[in-house]
């Protein structure tokens, strides 16, 4: 019985380990995507941006640096696609499911990038390397205005 009670109190510790392992797996995945840019696509952007947003807000310098590189690549390669698809919403005449899906993914990416921009705006005054990263990221995120 004592063993069960002791193990029960260890559950938060184990969950914390799992949570950090998941974060590390995401970081490794982002590192692969940063170095192999041809693996990026709009689907990947829309799926990974929420976790990139979480990582950049984590406070861990390594997580922030990898997130910065991922956001930089997303802005560089997909911002024109996102802008074009948002400026041209699906037409009311006929049904184009692919266009509607693309529009929804682009809208989702833009909303998450706007949330990241508002977070970064508050963090620009941080001193040191992180401050420089946040200032650079803020400059890059100025391009998301449509």
From TrEMBL:
Keyword Aminoacyl-tRNA synthetase: no
GO biological process per UniProt: microtubule depolymerization
Transmembrane segments: 21-40
Molecular function terms, GO-annotated: microtubule binding
Location(s) in or outside the cell: Cytoplasm, Cytoskeleton
Keyword terms of this UniProt record: Cytoplasm, Cytoskeleton, Membrane, Transmembrane, Transmembrane helix
GO CC term, one of those recorded: katanin complex
Primary location: cytoplasm
Entry-linked InterPro entries: Katanin_C-terminal (IPR028021)
Occurrences of domain Katanin p80 subunit C-terminal (ranges): 37-141
Protein name: Katanin p80 WD40-containing subunit B1
Gene: KATNB1_0
């Amino acid at each position: 019985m004592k063993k069960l009670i002791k193990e029960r109190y260890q559950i938060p510790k184990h969950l914390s380990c799992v949570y950090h392992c998941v974060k590390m797996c995401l970081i490794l995945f982002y590192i692969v995507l940063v170095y192999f840019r041809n693996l990026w696509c709009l689907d990947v952007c829309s799926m990974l941006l929420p976790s990139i947003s979480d990582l950049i807000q984590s406070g861990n310098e390594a997580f922030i640096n990898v997130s910065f590189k991922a956001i930089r690549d997303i802005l560089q390669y997909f911002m024109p696609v996102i802008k074009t698809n948002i400026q041209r919403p699906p037409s009311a005449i006929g049904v184009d499911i692919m266009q509607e899906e693309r529009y929804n993914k682009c809208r989702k990416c833009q909303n998450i990038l706007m949330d990241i921009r508002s977070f970064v705006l508050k963090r620009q005054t941080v001193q040191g390397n992180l401050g420089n990263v946040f200032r650079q990221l803020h400059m890059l995120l100025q391009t998301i205005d449509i």
